[in-house]
Amino acid sequence: MEFKKLAMAAMAASMAVCGAVGFSFAQAPKHGVEIVVGASPGGGDDATARAVEAAFNAAKLVGQPLNVNYRPGAGGTVAVAYINNYRGDMHYLNIAALNLITNHLQGTSPLGPADVTPLAALYTEYLCFAAHPKGKLQTAKDLIEALKKDASALRFGFGTAAGNHNQIAFAALAEKIGIDPKKPRTVIFPGAADATSQLLGQHVDFVVAPARQFASYHKAGELKCLAVTAPERFKGDLADVPTLTELGYDVTAGSWRIMIAPGGVKGPELAFWEDAFKKMMDVEAWKVQAEKNYWSVNYRNHEDTLKFLEAESKQAASALKALGLLKN
Amino acid sequence: MLRLRDGNVWLGLAGCAFAVAYLWEAKQIIEPPFVQGMGPRAFPWGLGCIFFFLSAAVALTERDPMRKSGPVRVAHTTMMAGVMTAFACAYVFLLPAFGYVLASVLVFFATAVVARSAWGAAAVSAIFIVVIFYLVFDSFLGVPLPSPRILQVLNV
Amino acid sequence: MFEALGYLWFGFEQTLTPFNLLMVSVGAFLGTWIGMLPGLGPAAGIALLLPVTFGMDPISAMIMLCGIYYGTMYGGSIASILINTPGDASSVMTTLDGYPMTKQGRGGVALFTSAIASFIGGTMAIVALTLVAAPMARFALRFGPPEQFAIMLLALIATATLIQGSLVKGLFSMVLGLMIATVGLDLQSGSPRFTFGVPELFDGVSLIAILIGVFAFSEALRNLETILVGEWTVHRKVGRLWMTMEDWTRSRWPIVRGAVIGFIIGVFPGVGAMVATLVSYSVEYRLSSRREEFGHGAIEGVAGPESANNASAPGALVPLLTLGIPGSAATAVLLGALMVYGIQPGPRLLTEHPELAWGVIASLYLGNIVLVILNIPLIGIFVRLLLIPAPILNALIMLLALTGAYSLGNRVFDIGVVIVFGILGYWLRRFGVPLAPLVLSVTLGGGLEQSLRQSLSLSNGDWLVFVERPISAILLAFALLVVCGPVLSSIYRSHAMRRADVQAVAPGQDTPYRN
Question: Model pTM?
Answer without folding.
Answer: 0.83
